[in-house]
Specification:
Shape of chain A: globular
Number of helices of chain A: 15
Radius of gyration of chain B: 12 Å
Largest sheet of chain B: 5 strands, mixed
Oligomer: heterodimer
Strand order of the largest sheet of chain A: 8-3-2-12-19
Largest interface: A-B, 34 and 34 residues
Order of helices and strands of chain B: EEHEEEEE
Helix content of chain B: 10-25%
Strand content of chain A: 15-25%
Number of strands of chain A: 23
């Protein structure tokens, strides 16, 4: 068993975790960055191909207040306005800072190239190369991690947060998969940067690692989730033909750049009928509306053969397509798919987790010592996330969380585990050890259970929900929980995937039930949450769902909270100054 | 299709995997984990976008990403030889 001590533990090494770790280190803290896969490779960031929104005003006049107005318009009234304001306010500064630190943003003249993306009123979206944004961001942030001397360990799955007698978080425990042994890290502050639960769904566009770890860890430690029912489905992911080595959501930038037409099975344009605005040529319809439109067309028998919609680039000159997306075009041609000659089929896919951990403007949860950053955070997007805001939030919230955690770690000092914390660590280590080699002759396989869970969630807790389906999902989850207890785990230590998957599935089942219970509570349809049995937006439900775990019974409790609004006009608003680190800055 | 996989002890296991259009070697490995042998260790994150680069292995003698290599007929998958072996196809990266 490995036992480590540090000031700030960051769990999850996508852009949010990398930014948080670098900022905490800059503020003078000792930092340990953990990822269950590999730093920068396993999270959502590496797969982000598109753009990052920030009101730099390099392409045309823009202000953060205009960016906020677009963000709030997309959120259908549920947006935590101060958090969204923070996102829009800090965005430009972070993008410029990351440019200096090594992210090679596409440039235009003296500034950055900024393009328009769906739902934005200005050209404000930055990018790296052709579909290289996520990879470019990761490359730049890795340079900064090296400069700051951040220590990272990969293949660590955190299974539990550790708390002391006062209820404060004082560390984390889990499984070091590569070494095949338990690991305990003591630290006065922990940042959860392992958000995303898209792997709970049969069709999803993110990595297999997005198993909702941040949410079950937060609930387990006594923190709250806000709007857990809000899962964003990306409308036009690739459905057919099967494409190898291409991001399933790459059709969005294709469409945006080249102007592909979205058609139903009868060859008609249809989005406008649902959006109430012209979409073709402008792409002003938001993601939830397009998802809804495609599902409705399929439901009414007007889908494409594989059950989606047609995306049509035929008639465009090959040279134009190739010039816009050379690498992707060549890969398509290699696979015999010439989009200047044939249409492709697209359909919605689980893409992003809108709901998340409830935090304040310092990214602190209600539990002392526990912070969140990136996709793990909830509230900032309301009921629908605007395209381009996901990477912005990784930078902005990552930086703020890193600064706040470093300052808090300085105030709280090194952890001296009390009896409660020590017992929690012992129990977590025992938990990890006793799973290895359990039910070794069982024919219940964890990868098969995960697939069953993903189908169950897609069918009953997916883009369209109703009371009956949500109840069936509840019974299905109970059944899967029993099967999970009987599942086989290999006895070997080194890089034992089943050992990891047993804990992942335990967390996924908890998070699935959290999404389901929040979806049951919200008996109306708003943005990403669509109830077939309650298709209308209800004024009295213009509030956020809040989930917590009862300290004694460990049952989930659903309550409602008033949406947080800005108390001043955006022109008068400014974010709180980051608290200076107690140890002073490392220069 | 027939999937031959080199295991930690150097032996080779053979699996019959139902084929579908567009199936990759990584798809076939995942099918085996789900239906026959969940202990088969293989590294992957992004699954098919070829972004994470974790699924690199030796297929029929060539270093490739299993997520971009078609699984047709019969293939032999082995771990990278120049990296420390962890378990089955998983090597230290």
């Amino acid at each position: 068993m490995k036992v480590l001590t540090t000031d700030v533990v960051v769990i999850g090494a996508g852009a949010a975790g990398m930014y948080a770790a670098a900022e905490a280190r800059r503020a003078g803290a000792d930092v340990l960055l953990l990822d269950k896969s590999m730093v920068g490779r396993g999270g959502a960031t590496i797969m982000a191909q598109m753009t990052v929104a920030a009101a730099l005003g390099h392409a045309e006049h823009d202000t953060w207040q205009l960016h906020l107005a677009d963000t709030l318009a997309s959120g259908r009234g549920l947006t935590n306005e101060p958090l969204a304001a923070l996102l829009c306010h800090d965005g430009p500064q972070r993008i410029l800072e990351s440019w200096q630190r090594g992210v090679n943003w596409a440039e235009c003249g003296d500034g950055l190239d900024q393009v328009k993306a769906p739902g934005h009123s200005r050209q404000r979206c930055c990018y790296v190369g052709a579909l290289q944004t996520g990879a470019g961001v990761v490359r730049g942030l890795r340079k900064e991690l090296r400069r700051q001397g951040v220590v990272s360990i990969d293949t660590v799955l955190v299974t539990e947060l550790l708390r002391d007698a006062s209820g404060a978080v004082v560390g984390a425990a889990g499984l070091h998969v590569r070494e095949g042994e338990p690991i305990v890290v003591w630290a006065p502050t922990v940042i959860l940067a392992c958000g995303g639960l898209t792997e709970l769904y049969a069709r999803n566009s993110a990595s297999v690692n997005m198993t909702g770890d941040a949410y079950h860890l937060a609930l387990g430690a006594g923190a709250e989730l806000v709007d857990a029912e809000m899962v964003q489905f990306f409308p036009i992911a690739n459905l057919a033909p099967r494409l190898i080595g291409l991001d399933p959501i790459m059709w969005d930038p294709f469409r945006y750049r080249l102007g592909g037409r979205l058609l139903n099975g009868e060859g008609e344009e249809f989005v406008e009928r649902y959006a109430g605005v012209a979409d073709e040529g402008t792409y002003s319809a938001t993601r939830d509306v397009v998802t809804y439109a495609i599902f409705k067309e399929v439901e009414e028998g007007r889908g494409s053969p594989a059950g989606g919609a047609w995306l049509d680039f035929t008639g465009l000159p090959k040279e134009e397509i190739r010039e816009a997306f050379p690498a992707a075009y060549d890969r398509l041609i290699d696979q015999g798919v010439d989009i200047s000659q044939r249409r492709v089929e697209v359909a919605p896919t689980a893409h992003y987790t809108i709901g998340g951990i409830r935090v304040g403007l310092d990214l602190a949860t209600s539990v002392p010592g526990l912070y969140a950053a990136g996709e793990a955070v909830g509230g900032q997007h309301g009921a629908n996330r605007l395209s381009g805001n996901a990477l912005t939030e990784t930078f902005v919230f990552g930086a703020r969380a890193g600064q706040a955690a470093a300052a808090a770690a300085g105030r709280r000092g090194p952890v001296v585990p009390d009896a409660t914390a020590s017992a929690a660590a012992d129990s977590a280590v025992h938990d990890v050890e006793q799973v290895r080699g359990r039910n070794v002759s069982s024919q219940v396989f964890l990868p098969a259970l995960r697939s069953r869970l993903k189908r169950l969630m897609w069918e009953h807790v997916g883009p369209f929900r109703d009371a009956g389906g949500l109840a069936r999902a509840g019974r299905g989850l109970a059944e899967l929980t029993e099967l999970h207890a009987a599942a086989r785990v290999d006895p070997r230590r080194t890089f034992n995937l089943e050992w990891q998957e047993w804990f992942e599935l335990r967390g996924m089942l908890q998070v699935a039930d959290a999404v389901r219970q929040a979806a049951m509570a919200r008996r109306d349809s708003r943005g990403a949450h669509q109830r077939i049995d309650h298709p209308e937006e209800r004024e009295e439900l213009l509030a956020n769902t809040v989930l917590s775990r009862d300290a004694d019974t460990r049952e989930l409790i659903v309550s409602w909270a008033r949406v947080e609004r800005l108390d001043v006009h955006p022109d008068e608003w400014s974010p709180p100054e980051p608290v200076p680190a107690a140890q002073g800055s490392r220069s | 299709m027939k999937l031959n996989v080199v295991r930690t002890d150097g032996s080779t296991d053979t699996f019959e995997v139902p084929e579908y259009e567009g199936m990759t070697v990584l798809d076939a490995l995942m099918w085996v984990r789900e239906h026959h042998d969940p202990s088969l260790a293989v590294r992957f994150s992004c699954r098919s976008a070829n972004a994470c680069k974790e699924c690199i292995a030796v297929v029929d003698g060539a270093r490739v990403y299993t997520c971009t290599t078609a699984a047709v007929g019969e293939v032999l998958v082995a771990p990278l030889e120049n990296q420390p072996l962890l378990h089955d196809l998983a090597v230290d990266q």
